[in-house]
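Readers of this paper often ask what the protein records in our data store actually look like. Below, we set out a record of this kind in full and without editing:
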Amino acid sequence: MCRWLAYSGSPMVLDAVLYRPEHSLINQSLYARMGAEATNGDGFGIGWYSADRAGDGTPAIFRDVAPAWNNRNLRELAAHVRSPLFFAHVRASTGSAVQQTNCHPFRHGRWMWMHNGAIADFQRLQRDLCMAVDPALFPCIEGSTDSEVMFYLAVTFGLDQDPPGAVARMAGLVERLGKEHGVPEPLQMTVAVSDGERVWAFRYSSQGASRTLFYSSRADTVRHLHPEIEYLNEISDATRIVVSEPLGDLHGVWNELPEASYVVVPSTLETDYLPFVPELP
């Protein structure tokens, strides 16, 4: 499968999150502890929104088929790009080609999307899934992954108006078609999606045994637990990171997102997460 990271909060130089932590995402590209594969070397991608919100609000994307752990261009960019919201993804292909258009994150307008998991027997479901994509959006699909089709289904089902509902309808369609085609447990996903203002991160699988996903505690909580970490004084209380697996072993920093739930960052809710239930579109 894959490993990914989503950051939202005070503008941060990317390498502070991608490279510097003890078990950084770049380290995970070689030595994942909790993934289906230890090595995620089938390409990578980063996507970020500008700190000054300049331009048309669309994120910048950099993707390559080379492994993340030895890509000099990635290290150069990460040391100089500062962003309040960025995604990073290291890929382990589940069968689709190792090519740039299959690397995450994917982008459509202001939206950015990345996925870990798979649609089981995707080739059996692919035609019907693609036929459900809005015809005006279908030419936007550049690669051959199930992940990109999932993204454009969510756009089709109202991502602009209702992100959790759109993802729920995408998941509901996959499960309905899976049942029709004799695939009893078709969907395995941890997904992150953003419009540049918020991040929604989902953990769900048809079999109720989803890939791992964690979110960081509030910065004020971590500051209280670890006053020795000076850089925590420079970030806002709303700063959060969502990751496939923790970036380190500090007590009280990482919380596992429960099965069949999603988190919104930043959030005004009293609870950290909400239940996720697929819907029929």
Summary: The first helix runs from residue 15 to 18. The chain has a mean pLDDT of 94.
